[in-house]
């Protein structure tokens, strides 16, 4: 599956967003190694901090459905932004934890712009699982 196809899946996922406060919908599509696509959308809460971003919704859904962490092929994220959308810091940390650091991450917008990156590029000098390994 190429970046454009995965971005279309993210656009479909965005339609499911629960955004009564911000009206800012975000969609994510996570490609598993078996070819299954997990949709994620942002889900808001009146208290704000219990809200969940699209990227984490897709990742948590995949893990809850038995997908093995670090075995994903790609992640696409889309929003109605001027340029390609960027994941928040919390999402970057979760992506680092659950995905290979060199997995393609496609950032896009509704205008069709797509930027390809990786989590290691999005979160340089990150504190990851290997930091907790005993010497």
Automatic annotation (TrEMBL):
Keywords: Hydrolase, Metal-binding, Zinc. The keyword Ribonucleoprotein does not apply. It holds the Pfam family dCMP_cyt_deam_1. It is an enzyme of class 3 (hydrolase). The keyword Plastid does not apply. It catalyses: 2'-deoxycytidine + H2O + H(+) = 2'-deoxyuridine + NH4(+); cytidine + H2O + H(+) = uridine + NH4(+). Zn(2+) binds at residues 53, 88, 91. This is Cytidine deaminase.
